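[Meeting: bench + compute handoff]

Bench side (C.D.) handed over the final construct sequence. Compute side (W.E.) agreed to return the predicted structure before the next meeting so the bench team could plan truncations. Sequence as handed over:
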Amino acid sequence: MINGTEIGRFTSASGNEFEEVIELLDRLRSDLLELRKVPLMEDKYFIDRDDILQTVDDIRVKFPSEFSMAKRIVEMKDELISGAKREAEELKNRAKEEVRALIDKQEIVRQARAREAQIAELTRQRVDEMRKKAEAEALEIRKQAASNVEQSLRHADQILGQAREDVRKVWNSFSK
């Protein structure tokens, strides 16, 4: 990360050193413009190699801090962008996971509701079957009870008929 001290150092150092570099580049340009041509060679010039090399070295001495700072700023920018991309990817992945979890929860709820409806339908069917069976058993019990009552009444009627006959016989035997 870039901090305020590095920025301050870069901006304060750049003013004076920058002017010196510009002066050195102007001197180099001036030296190149003042070169003498090599006789009989149109595009060739005599140059003072040591003088040019000294000027280039002077420029290099002035530039390294500027280039280093610029390079560091570019690296920090790249680090920031890379970090932001990683963080964005992580956020995206977390969001995907949360969406999947919500979808899974919704699917579980949907399945639970479907199972609940299925159980409710099965329960309703069982209740209907039990009710029908109970009604059939109750009808059978009523029929059986009616049959038993009818049979008991016939038996009682027979007993009463026999008792009447016995009473008549006894009555008749006293009346004679």
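W.E. noted at the follow-up: The chain has one domain: 4-168. C.D. will use this when planning the next construct.
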